[in-house]
Amino acid sequence: MIISLTVNGEVRDVAVEPHYLLSDVLRDRLDLTATHVGCEQGICGACTVLVDGQPARACLLFAVQMEGHAVTTLEGGAPSVELRALRAAFHTHHAQQCGFCTPGILMTFAAYLRDHPDCDEAGVRAVLGGNLCRCTGYGPIVRAIMAASAALREVADV
Amino acid sequence: MSEREAYVGQPRPRREDHRLLAGLARYVDDIKVTGALHAAFLRSPHGHARIVSIDVTAALELPGVVTVVTGEDLAEDVTDLTVAPPIEGLRPTSMPVMPVDRVRFQGDLVACVVAADRYVAEEAMERIVVEYAELPAVSDMFAALRDDSVLVDEALGTNLVARRVHRAGDPEARLAAAPRVIEAEFHQQRQTHAPIETRGCIAQWDPGREHLTLVIGSQVPHPLRTQIVRRLGLRDSQVSVSSPDVGGSFGQKIALYREELAICALARRLGRPVRWKEDRMENLLAACHAREQWCRTRAAVDDTGRILGLTLEMVEDFGAYCFYPANYISEVVGIILTAQYGIADYGYEIRVALTNKCGVGPMRAPMAMASWVMEGTLDVIARRLGLDPAEVRRRNMLADQALPYAMPGGETLLDVNCAETMETALDEIGYAAHRPHDDGRYLYGLGLCNVVESTTYGSRFYKNSGIGGSGHEAARIIVEPDGTVSASVGMAAAGQGYETTFAQVVADGVGVRPDDVAVTLGHSDTSPYGMGSRGGRGATAGGGALYLCAAEVRAHLLRLAAHRLGLNATDGLGLRDGRIVWVRAGGSEETGLDVADLARTAYFDPLALPEGMRPGLEFYRTYDPPPMTFSNSTHACRVRIARETGRLEILDYLVVENCGTVINPLVVHGQQAGAVAMGLSGTLLENVVYDQAGRNLSATFADYTIATVADIPAIRIIARATPSSRTPLGLKGMAEGGVMGAIGAVANAVNDALSVVGAQVTCLPLTPMRLHAAIHDGIGRAAQGQEG
Amino acid sequence: MKPAPFSYHRLQTVAELVGLKARLGDAAVILAGGQSLVPMLTLRLSRPEHVIDVNDIVEMDHILPEQDGLRIGALVRHQHVAESAVVATHLPLLRRMAGGIGNYAVRQRGTIGGSLVLADPAAHMPLAALLFDARLVLRSARGVRTAAYRDLYRSPLNCALDAGEVVVSVCFPRQPEAMRAVAEMFHVTAGSFPALICAVRLVADAQGGLAGLTIVVAAGAVRPPVMEGMFDDLRGVRPDAALRGEVVRRVVAHMGGLIGQDAAGRYLLSVLEGRMAMCLAGAAGDTKEGAGA
Fold first, then answer.
1. What's the CA gap between C36 and B527, in Å, rounded?
2. Is the CB of B654 inside 8 Å of chain C's CB atoms?
3. What is the average pLDDT across C73-86?
4. Which domain of life is it from (chain C) (predicted)?
């Protein structure tokens, strides 16, 4: 069947079977490989994308469900201010080593920082609990997200 | 060599980050190959069974299925893997690419489906009918070593695949004569690497050129190629291995696994590209496990806590198949156990058992247990004798003047500052004020772990320990026609930041800016044949080879520059950020020449070269590092354990570290913290669990729990670095010691806290349930620290 | 790990849903948030012929305060419950428990209806529904009925709907003024499902004595028991430390009979003892930090 969905702001028609996972369709049919698959069980969080602006595990959705919905991946068109701030802070704070889990973390926090501009570290840690990273020990990731949040507040204050 | 190290030592953010953060990285599964078929492996549901029959008819009938092969089919194309280095006490083992008539563990290979996509392949797998005759399984290493045990590998006639004995001095005589003999036990649970990117590969066979290209996340592209050509009956020139971005490896991506070899064979057989992406269940069931080891030490001590002699008994569970010589992991524990302690009379006995479980291999700090065993033994001695644990360490520690020191395990220890790191750690953690105590809700403890981290492993180490292979590394540097410096070594990154740090090393070695150095890695065709990334050898072997090569580049460029400037010699000339300068006291003066000018001459105006200098600017240099380099550190942590729940909280964690010259503090800090986190995750949470029938009960991330952000405390890292006296730039290597220290520091802190209630734990992981039982049921009480 | 093929149906109204469910019966599963269902499909623990996607049925996506309680549509996401001011006013504990489910991304998708029908013994929403004696509004081709969740939830992973029935919404009864509810979750590791959840609903009489006490405990792989009648003899007694100690003893004894006394069972019971005491103190107003009151 052919479904029509909005991916990164563009309407895309794609042939799928109902049992195809969104993560596979993004990667294999739409060539959007920034969305990584780490467990296919919704635990590691590497495949997190935004569905209608909110984070969701792409491995826990069937692509067919996305007909008429908007999916945003890390490749996503014009990056949001949150994503830009996160990228800069992740670079400065060395918040990724192998980088495989990173897209899921960036997508999650692009939404979280947008919705929680005054977040504190406890809140950030609680949300980051949904993403596994095997390289960094998480400390630099927390520092980077807090730095991005602070930078966004600074911009907002100007 | 160079006038100064301008870029080594700078905390430069990584150049790799851009592509990772933009979603532009390319891991294996991101690489599109037109027409590629997808493979899936049918795996044994049993821990041990005879394959009676396999019927693939229904699978082949499914539209989209190209072929289904069994072990018997593939045996025609691929030779067996034989692991039989000439090591005394090691029994040779052999395995086919896929089992033919018997499966040895749950997850073992039974058949491989190749289909249009993974969905079809998995549908087809369900249609394969396999008749198994279940056999009794042995899933416990001690049971496996009993005479009446089921045999895992019948060809061996025993499950004892390796037994190694080493003696220095006469430890038995010391034990017999000692005022006291103190025994301690340590049991580390089975773990697995669990990189967030699982394994996977894409194989393409070009029938016209008779050439195989394998794209695979690998730590060791060249040694992997060697394995492939041997097993497939090809020549080295017929295989290219390339490792793109790798989503973590931690030792799991070294061996040539059977799945990957089967994919290569199938690509050749079908003449079409074949790809395989391991799923998480396969990864946890059947990729590679690690660390399941039991140790018992017996220490002859005097009343002051001095160790007069020491023996180590060690048993390791190697699983069902040997991808490595079975002695190799435990042996390093035996070799380095005594670390910085002056113990002349020492012996070890290692026994390695086969069981009906997934095969094991090295995992980040394969010798990690050594520090826990040594430091845990010292703590037991201190508790038995009523002495201060730090004081017992001081009494046994080698004085700095005693270095270099011939360790009883056979290697030579040098360039460490163990007393300095320990005393600094004691100050920083507030040791003097600490006493283990109980406030009614919590038990409080403090743990110390001195670590001597063996790194690098030069060829002499392999020769000494009888393991085949080499520890050298190779570097190639090309100054391109436009003056760009392209550098490569035979290593492959999986997050270590080589592209950034090696550029810093080359920049200093040549005298250019890091931004003018391109580092390309991981391709067997374009990188020189090297030994890859393992054993903390990246900085010393890789960086060392590059630095030495870069120095040759610099010398060559300066000779060329001198000629261009009409000079007979290079005296007074230097290279700074790509410009040829006159080196003057207090500064430098431009000559007007730069590397791009010289490159143009070398490539396009060879007649302008000095007599005897050949056109072009390509350089190759190998480097064989010392048998081992040693970093050292002291880990210290304060913990509290809730009486009510047994939950452990780490109140303070610090590392005082000497890892030699630091190329990039940002990267090194990341590696150290990451290693500590992995050590903590293993100590507190991770556990591969098999039941008695050999069924794996931990094959999802819901069951095999690895640390989340909530499990890892803030980690303070304090540098007390001294350079190595024997390596280029004084590099030593790091990135594994954090694992070693974390296990020992936390386990020792827990036992310090538990000492308040007279309890001890000797088994990992330190789960709340285990600690709760220790506190309330007295489990483990008097299990450790008996005088024998 | 890929799901087996199935036919996909995406519906817009409850009426369509009821009709299709009647036609397909057990061959169809309902896909709401999918946070538990999809992993089961991916692991092929479940192989339905039909999957009915209800995510578009907006009439099931509402939170409404009603005369006799709070009605929450089956499709309401956990994050919506966790951030809902209405829920915060009427049932603060429910709001807090929703916020503790899984993780941020999972809460964006997971639904209350899906969680109640799945009836995972370690899950938050079923426990809350048991504690507050919530009733499910069920529709089928035969019509509408309501049923107590306590009656429907028979055993782990078994919410006994009749053939062709779907959950449309869940009603949490209006609570008396003097009700305090507290829950404590215990995770063995930070990333794991809770090993233990205990929840207390305590209603005081005008004199401060016990007018009603309900305790639900999720521990081990058993259907969380609702403990209520076993406290009838304590009515009118002030919930002081002595009484709370007695309650804890009864709860621990009761749970011990259910989850067994092996090492893991003994451990959970021991932790339960402490958590239960904490919960009861909170519900009795005997602590500054009533965990969720």
1. 46
2. no
3. 97
4. Bacteria
pLDDT digits (tens, 9 = 90+) for A55-84: 999 999 999 999 999 999 999 878 999 999
What is the pLDDT at residue C190? 78
Give the whole-angstrom CA distance, residue C55 versus residue B252: 41
Cβ contacts of B771 on chain C, cutoff 8 Å: none
B-chain CB neighbours of C267 within 8 Å are 646, 768-769, 772-773
Subunit contact A90:B710, Cβ cutoff 8 A: no
Instruction: Tell me the two tokens of residue B65.
Output: 């299925």
Tell me the residues of chain B between 244 and 283 that have a Cβ less than 8 Å away from chain C. 279-281
Task: Please state, in angstroms and rounded to a whole number, the distance separating the CA atoms of residues B127 and A44.
Answer: 30
Q: Scanning every residue of chain C, which has its alpha carbon at the shortest distance from the alpha carbon of B645?
A: C271
Task: Read off the pLDDT of residues B144-177 as tens digits, 9 standing for 90 and up.
Answer: 999 999 999 999 999 999 999 999 999 999 999 9
Amino acid at B284: L
- My answer on whether omega of the bond before B171 falls inside 30° of 0, hence cis, is no
Write the residue in A32, A44, A99 that is nearest to B20 by C-beta.
Answer: A99
Residue B734 to chain C, least CA–CA distance (Å)? 29
Residue C291: which pLDDT band, with cuts at 50, 70 and 90?
A: very low
Q: What is the pLDDT of residue B463?
A: 84
* Residues with Cβ within 8 Å of residue B776, at least 6 apart in sequence: B643, C270
Question: Per-residue pLDDT for B180 more than 80?
Answer: yes
Mean pLDDT of C164-174: 97
- In this prediction, the answer to ipTM > 0.85 reads yes
Of C118, C113, C98, whose CA–CA distance to C36 is shortest? C118
Report d(CA B355, CA B367) in Å as an integer. Answer: 21
Residue A124 to chain C, least CA–CA distance (Å) = 10
Are C1 and B279 in contact (CB < 8 Å)?
A: yes
Going B428 to B433 to B436 to B437, the CA torsion angle's sign is negative
Complete domains list, chain C, with CATH: 7-53 (3.30.43.10), 62-173 (3.30.465.10), 179-283 (3.30.390.50)
Residue with more model confidence, B466 or B566: B566
User: A26: nearest CA in chain B?
Assistant: B30
Residues of chain A neighbouring C55 (CB-CB closer than 8 A) = 65
Please give the radius of gyration of chain A, using alpha carbons only, rounded to the nearest integer.
16
**Is C142 an interface residue toward A (CB < 8 Å)?**
no
Residue A60 contacts C, CB cutoff 8 Å: yes
Q: Could you list the beta-strand ranges (E) of C110-251.
A: 135-140, 143-148, 153-155, 158-159, 166-173, 179-187, 194-204, 210-219, 226-227
For chain A, the residue count is 158
Tell the burial category of B607 from Cβ atoms under 10 Å away from its Cβ (0-12, 13-18, 19+): exposed
Q: Do residues B774 and B747 make contact, with C-beta atoms less than 8 angstroms apart?
A: no
Q: What's the maximum distance between 2 C-alpha atoms anywhere in chain A?
A: 50
Say if residue C206 is exposed, middle or buried (CB neighbours under 10 Å; 0-12, 13-18, 19+). Answer: exposed
Judging contacts by C-beta atoms under 8 Å, the chain C residues touching residue B280 are: 1
Q: Are B120 and B62 in contact, with CB atoms under 8 Å apart? A: yes
For chain B, list the domains and their CATH numbers.
Answer: 17-24+472-623 (3.30.365.10), 31-135+198-246+253-287 (3.90.1170.50), 371-455+627-776 (3.30.365.10)
Q: Which DSSP letter does residue A47 get?
A: T
What lies within 8 Å, CB to CB, of B248 at 6+ separation is A97, A98, A100, A134, A135, B193, B195, B196, B197, B494, B495
Chain A residues with CB inside 8 Å of B276's CB?
Answer: none
3-state secondary structure of A92: helix
pLDDT at B535: 85
| Domains of chain A (ranges, CATH numbers) | 2-72 (3.10.20.30), 81-157 (1.10.150.120)
Q: Are B196 and A129 inside 8 Å of each other by CB?
A: no
